[in-house]
Write a structure and sequence with these properties.
By secondary structure, the protein is of the alpha/beta class. The chain has 12 helices and 12 strands. α5 crosses α6. The longest helix is centred in the N-terminal third of the chain and has 16 residues. It starts with 10 loop residues before the first strand and ends in a 10-residue tail after the last helix.
Length: 289
Amino acid sequence: MTVGAPLSLTLCNKGVNIEALSKECVSPMRDKAVLYEKRDHAAWVTLNRPQAHNRLDLRTCHELRAVCEAISQDDEVRLAALTGAGDAFCAGDEEGPTEFANGASPEEVRAYLEPRRAASFLGGVEKPLIAAINGDALGHGLELALACDIRIVSEGARLGMTQIARGGIPWDGGAQRLARIVGRAWATDMLLNGRVLDTEEALRIGLVHRVAPASELAGCVEQMAAAMAALAPIATRYAKEVVLKGMDMTLEQGLRLEADLNVILQTTRDRAEGVASFLERREPTYTGE
């Protein structure tokens, strides 16, 4: 995937300055921890710390939060793809503050972790997210991938929840999403053993959707993104919602949510365009209305 000039990422005391993010272009030579490009109704997001295997530090998390809010608020963006620069997707976190080695209060730990909830920022995006896992996704890096809806991985990558090796556990939704994606048995195995999977095993247990040769990963993601961007954007958001929210509901509640969203969908122009294009035997043109 090619990445053009990143957009300025500015944080305000009360949140993200989306106007600045949308309008202020900066030089491609400027060092950014997260690169952002919008083209063809898709947002392309790249973790840009290849020298550190794209480990998450505070600046990267701040910039990723800004990008997630920009994606959510931009009606032209219908989906997003996340990848890493260099040969790793994300190898986890930067090491925490050394003073934590001697213990810390719950308040201190919460204050440290809250602005670093990068997977939670991704999980808050209602639009479809594709993780283009171009290399190792370990610890918090795998938590990022699990917050995406589709995971395509390059051959030779490793995936694992390795936090337990340092006396920790996933803290950014990783354990919850992992169990929902691969089931309780595999999640327990991975978490308790800190086991790292190769791509074949990750595909076999349903952790990833597709495996591609490294040289073909970008093209595979581009092709999928183009196909998804051509679909009705409201319908794709609703489809994501019924799956994710339905997992935490009873069957009866999930059926009601699905029915209610379908009723709302019938009132949109996109739905009318979908029916009309089918009757007229032509490709639909969706506007997100």
